[in-house]
Amino acid sequence: MSCVTTDDSEQKTLQLLADLPRVDATFGDTLYLYQGVWLFRDAVLGAMQIQNHFNHHPTDIFLTSFMKSGTTWLRSLMFTILNRSRFDFSDHPLLRKGPHDCFPVLDTCKPEDYTVTDNSPRLFATHFPHKMLPSSITDPSSGCKFVYVCRDPKDVLVSMWHFVVKLRPKELPPLSFDEVFNLFCEGVMIYGPY
């Protein structure tokens, strides 16, 4: 995958961000409404990068879900199954690092965070909705495969609330469950609306 960031693309991103609707996020950061989805700045950049620069392979596999839908365990399983003949138990990557480090997340598109190999199939994870992914990978003729995890929205909400409470800066007032519930129902949540 090539995530190209140039001064020109950075300028375009800054101009785009200045023009997008925004709200203060539950984490104390800002969310931007990009293509109908609330995203952090880095996720807007990631979406732009994959929409404009992602070169897929027909054997690519994408693990997709709404945030807090329980994909961490599935990442481990997918990575282990697809790489079962590449690693011995004693040198398995999951013994040294977590599943988030074993295959890349497209959302923030930070190539320094991981190395994408030409091993086939390549694994990618994303919380972007289907409509934000480039048609080059979503078209059935692309050969790409998708694993979609869907979780009961009530369970996503509870998991999201615990996540928000844990990551919210201590200098900000705590968020009640009712506040997170209202934001979730209004769709003003990272990767929202659900």
Task: Describe the model.
By secondary structure, the protein is of the alpha/beta class. The chain has 6 helices and 6 strands; from the N terminus they run H-E-E-E-H-E-H-E-H-E-H-H. It has one domain (7-152, 164-186): 3-Layer(aba) Sandwich (Rossmann fold). Strands 1-2-3 form a 3-stranded antiparallel sheet. Strands 5-4-6 form a 3-stranded parallel sheet, covered by helices on one side. Helix 5 packs across helix 6 (177-186). The longest helix has 15 residues, at 153-167.
Name the CATH class.
Answer: Alpha Beta
Question: Sheet with the most strands?
Answer: 3 strands, antiparallel
Number of strands: 6
| Rounded Rg | 18 Å
Specify the helix fraction band.
25-40%
> What is the H/E order?
HEEEHEHEHEHH
Number of domains: 1
Mean pLDDT: 85
* Corresponding CATH superfamily: P-loop containing nucleotide triphosphate hydrolases
In short:
The protein is α/β, with parallel strands linked by helices and 194 residues long.
